[in-house]
Recover the amino acids of this structure.
């Protein structure tokens, strides 16, 4: 027996809604990503530290967090650390990848997580869910999620 | 049973449907990732809200206690006279921060520049300093609680919206696309088989005619 077909009216309503959603959702998930990352030193010099986002808005970074980061880094490292730190989520529910442009991010991660961390691949550090929670708790405004459709690993 | 989408049974439609299925599965994966991240953030925010609420209540208690003691020591009128001069506007740095596409508020109490208290330190006791410190701490706690609580509401709303979308993709769109693709593929196979048997029959008829 053949499965029932959807009537034209119902189908068009579903179709319109889902088509619009599918195209919108991919844009939405990464809409708040930073368009330009700025160094910690530059952000500390600003009165209201913020970075511009890809959707035209800006992400405000908390001064308390910046000072927390500055406390664990020397001046040259403060120049090298680009904020916000990006956390890539790519299809695995139990882990995420922190994108590191320099070894300073690695140092920050080790200090925040309280354990040594290593590159899994050049520029990428794999962390697990409990560590992700810990990282987000300490650096709420200076980390951002980036969603990727590729498979993890 | 998944519903079939009404399309013309052509190969072009089949290719289109396959492309749509691929896109839907890709979006479903991203939406599921987003949902799990939002849920994690929501749970963390909920835990932090509970402790922030407790901290706010404690800080308020401390502030009122310190203020009452200072009031008792200096007298209400004398303390009012000192504190009226120290009144200053509270400035807060507020802005959005994005969590997986959700814009949450970010609030931070600005510390007064130079650490000046605004009242005469020689005319007042350390009890007033203590009351001032605890009041500022209470303000900071209120700010933290406001940020977390609003964030919690926004995250909750976004989770329920994302859940609806995930369910629509998982239980309606993708199964109906798969069912339609399966139905069209079977139809084309059936057509091929019909064509083959027709050709065989024609071949037999031609062979008979020759004989």
């Amino acid at each position: 027996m053949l499965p029932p077909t959807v009537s034209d009216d119902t189908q068009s309503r579903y179709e319109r809604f889902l088509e619009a959603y599918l195209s919108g959702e991919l844009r939405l998930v990464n809409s708040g990503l930073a368009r330009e990352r700025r160094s910690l030193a530059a952000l500390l010099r600003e009165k209201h530290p913020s970075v511009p986002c890809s959707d035209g808005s800006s992400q405000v970074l908390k001064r308390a967090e910046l000072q927390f980061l500055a406390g664990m880094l020397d001046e040259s490292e403060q120049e090298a650390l680009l904020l916000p730190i990006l956390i890539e989520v790519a299809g695995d529910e139990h882990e995420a990848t922190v994108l590191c442009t320099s070894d300073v991010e690695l140092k920050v991660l080790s200090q925040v997580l309280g354990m040594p961390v290593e590159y899994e691949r050049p520029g990428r550090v794999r962390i697990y869910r409990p560590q992700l929670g810990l990282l987000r708790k300490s650096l709420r405004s200076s980390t951002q999620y980036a969603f990727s459709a590729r498979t993890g690993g | 049973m998944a519903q079939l989408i009404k399309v013309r049974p052509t190969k072009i439609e089949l290719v289109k449907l396959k492309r749509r299925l691929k896109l839907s599965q890709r979006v479903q994966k991203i939406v599921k990732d987003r949902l799990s991240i939002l849920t994690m953030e929501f749970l963390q925010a909920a835990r932090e809200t509970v402790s922030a609420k407790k901290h706010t209540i404690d800080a308020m208690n401390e502030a009122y206690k310190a203020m009452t003691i200072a009031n008792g020591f200096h007298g209400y009128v004398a303390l009012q006279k000192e504190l009226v001069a120290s009144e200053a506007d509270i400035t807060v740095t507020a802005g959005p921060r994005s969590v997986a596409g959700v814009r949450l508020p970010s609030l931070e109490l600005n510390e007064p520049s130079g650490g000046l208290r605004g009242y005469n330190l020689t005319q007042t006791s350390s009890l007033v300093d203590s009351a001032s410190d605890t009041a500022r701490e209470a303000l900071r706690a209120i700010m933290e609680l406001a940020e977390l609580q609003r964030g919690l509401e926004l995250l909750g709303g976004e989770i329920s919206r994302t859940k609806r979308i995930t369910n629509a993709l998982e239980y309606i769109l993708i199964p109906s696309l798969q069912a339609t693709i399966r139905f069209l593929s079977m139809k084309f196979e059936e057509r091929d088989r019909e064509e083959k048997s027709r050709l065989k029959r024609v071949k037999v008829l031609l062979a008979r005619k020759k004989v």
